[in-house]
């Protein structure tokens, strides 16, 4: 039943997006890129009304695709990810709260994720960024349908700087597949590093269907932006962080992620799904999020396609 549920969701999204393609375009196996921004307010990008945060590249994606404004969703880090990847209510797959560095459980590997379905269809699959569905081996992305993983296994406030009621924990781990390769990373560089990993994976698999789940750590607190973006927005550090995410998605030098997709073999179509795990309180990060939206989380936000016409 769960398998058919996920297939149904994917088919509906595919039909909706293919309506934007030329009549003679009939892609068989579209690439899929899901970009998740953590704690980004509903109205903190231009296409949803942000007056002081500049996101021209995300806005362009929205203008060329489909934008959604109503949804039901989870409001915590781990449940929102469980729902997004399985197509089920998080509680139905046993994820009702947030996993911590001292948690022994995670998303049951018996649950079926969209990555597993696409993997069975010959897709190369990667999870890059914040995972937060269990950091022990049975629950890692490589046990949930992903061929490759790079990122933080949980939130960026779950290290030595953990909130008073929890921790302190060891310095944050950076993982590649099932191994910890680094401790205490420079969080100012996380957004950039995630982009680099995404681009590398797409470059290596551009001649076959691929699925990339890019889950940005930011703008979850504590906020960090690279030196190139600190102090550049009109909305403080929070605005700097959001504008860097926008720039990394579509760098002016060539639409960073999309640039490599366009190099894929002729006729390749890519579905972009950008979604957000919205903040619980708009006061928390001085977000422009309207109060009627503050309890929303991880709803489908905007969809668009990119089609390659040449190698």
TrEMBL record:
Ranges in a coiled coil: none
Keywords from the named record: Calcium, Hydrolase, Metal-binding, Signal
Family: Belongs to the sulfatase family.
Superkingdom field: Bacteria
GO molecular function: arylsulfatase activity; metal ion binding
Presence of the UniProt keyword GTP-binding in the record: no
Secretion signal, residue range per the UniProt entry: 1-25
Residue stretches making up the Sulfatase N-terminal domain: 30-249
Record-given protein name: Sulfatase
InterPro entries noted in UniProt: Alkaline_phosphatase_core_sf, Sulfatase, Sulfatase_CS, Sulfatase_N
């Amino acid at each position: 039943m769960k398998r058919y549920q996920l297939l149904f969701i994917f088919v509906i999204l595919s039909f909706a997006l293919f309506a934007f393609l030329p009549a003679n375009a009939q892609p068989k196996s579209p690439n899929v890129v899901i970009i998740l921004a953590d704690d980004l307010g509903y109205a903190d990008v231009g296409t949803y009304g942000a007056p002081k945060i500049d996101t021209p590249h995300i806005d362009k994606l929205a203008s060329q695709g489909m934008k959604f404004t109503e949804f039901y969703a989870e409001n915590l880090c781990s449940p929102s990810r469980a729902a997004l990847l399985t197509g089920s209510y998080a509680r139905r797959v046993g994820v009702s709260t947030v996993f911590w560095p001292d948690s022994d459980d995670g998303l049951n590997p018996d649950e079926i994720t969209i990555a597993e379905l696409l993997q069975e269809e010959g897709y190369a699959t990667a999870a890059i960024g914040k995972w937060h569905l269990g950091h022990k081996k049975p629950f890692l992305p490589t046990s949930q349908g992903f061929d490759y993983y790079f990122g933080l296994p949980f939130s960026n406030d779950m290290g030595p700087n953990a909130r008073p009621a929890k921790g302190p924990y060891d310095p944050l781990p950076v993982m590649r597949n099932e191994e910890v390769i680094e401790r205490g990373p420079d969080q100012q560089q996380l957004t950039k590093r995630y982009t680099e990993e995404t681009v590398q994976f797409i470059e290596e698999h551009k001649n076959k269907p691929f699925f990339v789940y890019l889950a940005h750590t930011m703008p979850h607190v504590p906020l960090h932006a690279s030196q190139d973006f600190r102090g550049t927005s009109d909305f403080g550090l929070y605005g700097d962080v959001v504008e860097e995410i926008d720039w990394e998605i579509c760098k002016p030098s060539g639409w960073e992620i999309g640039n490599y997709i366009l190099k894929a073999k002729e006729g390749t179509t890519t579905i972009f799904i950008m979604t957000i795990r919205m903040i619980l309180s708009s006061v928390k990060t001085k977000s422009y999020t309207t109060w009627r939206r503050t309890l929303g989380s991880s709803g489908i936000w905007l969809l668009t396609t990119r089609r390659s016409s040449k190698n």
